[in-house]
Protein backbone atom coordinates (compact mmCIF):
# COMPACT_ATOMS: atom_id res chain seq x y z
CA UNK A 1 0.00 0.00 0.00
CA UNK A 2 1.24 3.48 -0.90
CA UNK A 3 0.29 6.75 0.73
CA UNK A 4 0.30 10.15 -0.97
CA UNK A 5 -0.05 13.40 0.96
CA UNK A 6 -1.67 16.31 -0.85
CA UNK A 7 -0.86 19.71 0.65
CA UNK A 8 -2.49 22.36 -1.54
CA UNK A 9 -1.44 25.26 0.67
CA UNK A 10 -2.65 27.28 3.62
CA UNK A 11 -4.06 30.31 1.80
CA UNK A 12 -7.39 30.36 0.01
CA UNK A 13 -5.90 31.32 -3.35
CA UNK A 14 -3.41 28.43 -3.21
CA UNK A 15 -6.09 25.90 -2.33
CA UNK A 16 -8.30 27.27 -5.11
CA UNK A 17 -5.54 27.19 -7.74
CA UNK A 18 -4.04 23.77 -6.91
CA UNK A 19 -6.60 21.45 -5.28
CA UNK A 20 -8.50 20.32 -8.38
CA UNK A 21 -5.32 19.37 -10.23
CA UNK A 22 -3.85 17.73 -7.12
CA UNK A 23 -6.99 15.57 -6.92
CA UNK A 24 -6.84 14.75 -10.64
CA UNK A 25 -3.21 13.73 -10.17
CA UNK A 26 -4.22 11.43 -7.31
CA UNK A 27 -6.89 9.90 -9.57
CA UNK A 28 -4.27 9.21 -12.25
CA UNK A 29 -1.96 7.66 -9.66
CA UNK A 30 -4.78 5.53 -8.26
CA UNK A 31 -5.38 4.13 -11.76
CA UNK A 32 -1.80 2.81 -11.67
CA UNK A 33 -1.69 2.04 -7.94
CA UNK A 34 -5.21 0.91 -6.90
CA UNK A 35 -4.15 0.57 -3.25
CA UNK A 36 -3.08 4.23 -3.08
CA UNK A 37 -4.23 6.02 0.06
CA UNK A 38 -4.55 9.81 -0.15
CA UNK A 39 -4.25 12.00 2.93
CA UNK A 40 -4.95 15.74 2.90
CA UNK A 41 -3.99 17.78 5.97
CA UNK A 42 -5.73 21.16 5.94
CA UNK A 43 -4.69 24.10 8.06
CA UNK A 44 -8.14 25.13 9.36
CA UNK A 45 -11.89 24.63 8.99
CA UNK A 46 -12.18 27.29 6.28
CA UNK A 47 -9.57 25.58 4.06
CA UNK A 48 -11.22 22.21 4.75
CA UNK A 49 -14.61 23.52 3.58
CA UNK A 50 -12.96 25.00 0.50
CA UNK A 51 -11.16 21.74 -0.29
CA UNK A 52 -14.33 19.68 0.28
CA UNK A 53 -16.21 21.91 -2.20
CA UNK A 54 -13.46 21.49 -4.83
CA UNK A 55 -13.32 17.74 -4.21
CA UNK A 56 -17.12 17.47 -4.65
CA UNK A 57 -16.80 19.21 -8.03
CA UNK A 58 -13.63 17.44 -9.20
CA UNK A 59 -13.49 13.96 -7.68
CA UNK A 60 -16.72 13.28 -5.79
CA UNK A 61 -16.23 9.50 -5.64
CA UNK A 62 -12.59 9.60 -4.60
CA UNK A 63 -11.86 8.58 -1.04
CA UNK A 64 -9.40 10.89 0.69
CA UNK A 65 -8.54 11.11 4.36
CA UNK A 66 -8.78 14.74 5.43
CA UNK A 67 -6.97 15.84 8.55
CA UNK A 68 -7.33 18.98 10.63
CA UNK A 69 -3.77 20.26 10.74
CA UNK A 70 -1.36 17.38 11.35
CA UNK A 71 0.65 18.17 8.21
CA UNK A 72 3.89 16.91 9.73
CA UNK A 73 2.26 13.62 10.77
CA UNK A 74 0.89 13.21 7.24
CA UNK A 75 4.34 13.83 5.75
CA UNK A 76 6.01 11.34 8.06
CA UNK A 77 3.37 8.68 7.32
CA UNK A 78 3.33 9.23 3.55
CA UNK A 79 5.51 7.67 0.89
CA UNK A 80 5.36 10.84 -1.23
CA UNK A 81 3.84 14.30 -1.16
CA UNK A 82 2.47 16.69 -3.74
CA UNK A 83 2.51 20.14 -2.23
CA UNK A 84 2.32 23.87 -2.77
CA UNK A 85 5.61 25.69 -2.52
CA UNK A 86 6.12 27.20 0.91
CA UNK A 87 7.28 26.17 4.35
CA UNK A 88 5.59 22.78 3.82
CA UNK A 89 8.37 21.86 1.37
CA UNK A 90 11.03 22.43 4.02
CA UNK A 91 8.97 20.51 6.60
CA UNK A 92 8.52 17.69 4.10
CA UNK A 93 12.26 17.49 3.47
CA UNK A 94 12.96 17.39 7.20
CA UNK A 95 10.32 14.64 7.53
CA UNK A 96 12.27 12.73 4.84
CA UNK A 97 9.24 12.45 2.58
CA UNK A 98 9.92 12.53 -1.18
CA UNK A 99 7.96 15.33 -2.79
CA UNK A 100 6.96 17.18 -5.90
CA UNK A 101 6.39 20.91 -5.49
CA UNK A 102 3.91 22.90 -7.52
CA UNK A 103 2.85 26.50 -7.51
CA UNK A 104 0.39 28.46 -9.55
CA UNK A 105 -0.71 32.06 -9.18
CA UNK A 106 -2.65 34.58 -11.20
CA UNK A 107 -0.85 35.29 -14.50
CA UNK A 108 -0.20 38.97 -13.79
CA UNK A 109 1.21 38.18 -10.34
CA UNK A 110 3.51 35.55 -11.86
CA UNK A 111 4.64 37.95 -14.61
CA UNK A 112 5.40 40.63 -12.02
CA UNK A 113 7.19 38.21 -9.69
CA UNK A 114 9.41 36.96 -12.52
CA UNK A 115 10.54 40.52 -13.19
CA UNK A 116 11.11 41.47 -9.55
CA UNK A 117 12.63 38.27 -8.16
CA UNK A 118 15.61 36.68 -9.89
CA UNK A 119 15.99 33.12 -8.69
CA UNK A 120 16.21 29.70 -10.27
CA UNK A 121 14.00 28.05 -7.64
CA UNK A 122 10.88 28.69 -5.60
CA UNK A 123 10.84 25.84 -3.04
CA UNK A 124 12.72 26.40 0.20
CA UNK A 125 14.84 23.21 0.00
CA UNK A 126 16.08 24.23 -3.47
CA UNK A 127 16.56 27.88 -2.54
CA UNK A 128 18.55 27.04 0.57
CA UNK A 129 20.64 24.38 -1.16
CA UNK A 130 21.27 26.53 -4.22
CA UNK A 131 20.46 23.56 -6.46
CA UNK A 132 17.54 21.29 -7.28
CA UNK A 133 16.79 18.83 -4.49
CA UNK A 134 13.09 18.51 -5.26
CA UNK A 135 11.23 18.81 -8.54
CA UNK A 136 9.29 22.05 -9.01
CA UNK A 137 6.53 22.70 -11.51
CA UNK A 138 5.19 26.23 -11.89
CA UNK A 139 2.23 27.88 -13.57
CA UNK A 140 1.38 26.10 -16.85
CA UNK A 141 3.57 23.13 -15.89
CA UNK A 142 1.20 22.47 -12.97
CA UNK A 143 -0.99 19.82 -14.50
CA UNK A 144 -1.88 16.25 -13.55
CA UNK A 145 -0.17 14.76 -16.60
CA UNK A 146 3.14 16.31 -15.51
CA UNK A 147 2.78 15.64 -11.77
CA UNK A 148 1.71 12.00 -12.08
CA UNK A 149 4.98 10.57 -13.46
CA UNK A 150 7.04 12.66 -11.03
CA UNK A 151 5.02 11.39 -8.07
CA UNK A 152 5.32 7.83 -9.41
CA UNK A 153 9.10 8.19 -9.40
CA UNK A 154 9.06 9.09 -5.71
CA UNK A 155 8.16 5.54 -4.65
CA UNK A 156 10.91 3.44 -6.23
CA UNK A 157 13.48 6.22 -5.83
CA UNK A 158 12.58 7.25 -2.29
CA UNK A 159 15.75 5.99 -0.67
CA UNK A 160 18.25 7.58 -3.10
CA UNK A 161 16.25 10.82 -3.05
CA UNK A 162 16.28 10.84 0.72
CA UNK A 163 20.05 10.21 0.79
CA UNK A 164 20.48 13.31 -1.33
CA UNK A 165 18.27 15.33 0.99
CA UNK A 166 19.96 13.95 4.12
CA UNK A 167 23.35 15.06 2.79
CA UNK A 168 21.97 18.51 2.05
CA UNK A 169 19.89 19.02 5.20
CA UNK A 170 22.87 19.82 7.50
CA UNK A 171 24.13 22.35 4.96
CA UNK A 172 20.71 23.90 4.81
CA UNK A 173 20.50 24.02 8.61
CA UNK A 174 23.88 25.77 8.87
CA UNK A 175 23.00 28.12 6.03
CA UNK A 176 19.67 29.05 7.55
CA UNK A 177 21.31 29.73 10.93
CA UNK A 178 23.91 32.10 9.46
CA UNK A 179 22.85 35.72 8.95
CA UNK A 180 22.85 36.72 5.28
CA UNK A 181 25.46 39.41 5.96
CA UNK A 182 27.97 36.78 7.16
CA UNK A 183 27.49 34.30 4.31
CA UNK A 184 30.41 34.30 1.91
CA UNK A 185 30.33 30.97 0.13
CA UNK A 186 27.58 28.41 0.42
CA UNK A 187 28.34 25.42 2.64
CA UNK A 188 27.15 23.09 -0.08
CA UNK A 189 29.39 24.28 -2.91
From TrEMBL:
Gene Ontology BP terms: lipid A biosynthetic process
Domain of life according to the entry: Bacteria
Record has Protease as a keyword: no
Catalysed reactions, as listed in the record: a lipid X + a UDP-2-N,3-O-bis[(3R)-3-hydroxyacyl]-alpha-D-glucosamine = a lipid A disaccharide + UDP + H(+)
A GO term for molecular function: lipid-A-disaccharide synthase activity
GO cellular component, as recorded: membrane
A Pfam family the protein falls into: LpxB
EC numbers: 2.4.1.182
Assigned keywords, A-Z: Glycosyltransferase, Lipid A biosynthesis, Lipid biosynthesis, Lipid metabolism, Transferase
Entry similarity comment: Belongs to the LpxB family.
Biological function: Condensation of UDP-2,3-diacylglucosamine and 2,3-diacylglucosamine-1-phosphate to form lipid A disaccharide, a precursor of lipid A, a phosphorylated glycolipid that anchors the lipopolysaccharide to the outer membrane of the cell.
PANTHER family: LIPID-A-DISACCHARIDE SYNTHASE, LIPID-A-DISACCHARIDE SYNTHASE, MITOCHONDRIAL-RELATED
Record protein name field: Lipid-A-disaccharide synthase
Amino acid sequence: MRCLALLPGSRGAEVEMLSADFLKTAQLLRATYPDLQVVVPLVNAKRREQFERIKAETAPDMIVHMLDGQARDAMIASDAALLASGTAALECMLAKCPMVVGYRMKPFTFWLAKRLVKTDYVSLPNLLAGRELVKELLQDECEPGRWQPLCSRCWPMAKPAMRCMRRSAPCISRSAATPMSRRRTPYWS
